[in-house]
């Protein structure tokens, strides 16, 4: 799901503040200000890289990049 630029920035900041809270030795409790982006805050606190969730491959992309297409010898050399 694509996020609007402003929402994406908020998620990034929530993640960064979560990391800083961990460095400062604070509790693993999401502050009330970050409840809307609690998951990002907790990922930052736990050291999970931002955007680490794998994106599913569409059926059309999978068909384009099948094994025969990848194993095909290069005709340019």
Walk me through what this model shows.
- There is one protein chain.
- The protein is mainly α and 77 residues long.
- It is 51% helix and 0% strand.
- The chain is built from four helices and no strands.
- It starts with a helix and ends in a 6-residue tail after the last helix.
- The model has no long low-confidence stretch (mean pLDDT 79).
Largest sheet: none
What is the H/E string? Answer: HHHH
Total strands: the figure is 0
What quaternary form is this? single chain
Determine the structural class based on helices, strands and strand pairing. mainly alpha
Unreliable stretches, pLDDT < 50, 5 or more residues?
Answer: none
Tell me the Rg in angstroms.
Answer: 20 Å
- Portion in strands: under 5%
Residue-averaged pLDDT, rounded? 79
Distance between the termini: 41 Å
The outline comes out as elongated
- The level of helicity is 40-55%
Q: How many helical stretches?
A: 4
Concise overview:
The chain contains 4 helices and no strands.
Sum up the structure in keywords:
mainly alpha; 77 residues; elongated; 0% strand
């Amino acid at each position: 799901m694509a996020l609007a630029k402003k929402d994406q920035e908020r998620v990034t900041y929530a993640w960064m503040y979560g990391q800083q809270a961990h460095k400062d030795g604070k509790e693993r409790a999401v502050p009330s200000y970050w409840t809307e982006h609690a998951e990002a805050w907790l990922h930052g606190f736990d050291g999970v890289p931002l955007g680490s969730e794998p994106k599913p491959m569409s059926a059309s992309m999978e068909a384009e990049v099948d094994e025969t297409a990848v194993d095909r010898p290069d005709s340019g050399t």
